[in-house]
Amino acid sequence: MSGISLEGRTAVVTGAGGGLGKAYALLLADLGAGVVVNDAGVSADGTGLDAAPAQQVAEEITDRGGKAVASQHSVSEWDSAQNIIKTAVDSWGRVDILVNNAGILRDKSLLKMEVEDFQEVIKVHLEGTFYCIKAALPYMREQEYGRIVSASSAAGLYGNFGQGNYAAAKMGIVGLMNCVKEEVQKYGIKVNTIVPTAGTRMTAGVLPSEVVEKVKPQYVAPMVAYLCSDHCEVSGSIFTAGGGYFSRAQVLEGPGHYFNPDREITVDMIAEHMEWIDNLRAARGFSNASEQTTQVLSRLMQQ
After folding, report:
1. Is residue 266 part of a domain?
2. Among the options 24, 131, 166, 219, which is catalytic?
3. Model pTM?
4. How far is residue 19's CA from residue 167's CA, in Å, rounded to a whole number?
5. Alpha-carbon distance 82 to 38, whole Å?
6. In terms of domains, do 218 and 294 share one?
7. Is 131 considered catalytic here?
8. Given this model, what pLDDT does residue 300 score?
């Protein structure tokens, strides 16, 4: 029996008609949350519409004794995204948890990628995450409570061939999290990002079948559920999860090399000191942009 309970909480999970989103929705419901199962029912590339996936997952939750309603609204339009959050408020009077998981893929190398392929992936992943967060925040601020978990990707953190559109969106989500975290911390709202490794239709044909069995979506869900709970006190963090592996990831900055800004700094000086500039030994992370800027300026004042 889990010590973590979500009784009395209301959760919205986008892209919950299958794969990772379904695993998140099922676990959150099992822990007691009322869940809006949102999924437009589009294909992996974002085409078509189907109400069945969201409805089937919602029915599965209620058959298990949980509380759920289905939503087929798209995350990629502002008006539609507002209706996703409104579904939670209309059903249970509040929205405590938002899991931004909806996404599509249109993988192509940049030379072959159509502009529309880039725009549509950004629209669903990055704009969709923004719209849902913006729609949920007024309710969370009023409650002085909220948990937001958005999906990034290893492709965004580290790069992957043929996924420039997807990677740009996923790293954009990290930047969005970093700023939202600063803006909402005084309201008791925690904002974090998950980087999952799982066998889903999004990774079909990429991961070998024997590997898929070891990286089921269910193995990521506990990390997401923790970040959605009252027990979570961290905010602005990136967590990786998959196949039993859980870790934190962060952008790091090395100690660097300082030149005297009162003298000319030349290209040759950069070349001569690249070993130090490129050095990540004793690298550190920063909690926000001001902290990084303060470090630069404090060293400058010592010159």
Report:
1. yes
2. 166
3. 0.92
4. 20
5. 12
6. no
7. no
8. 67
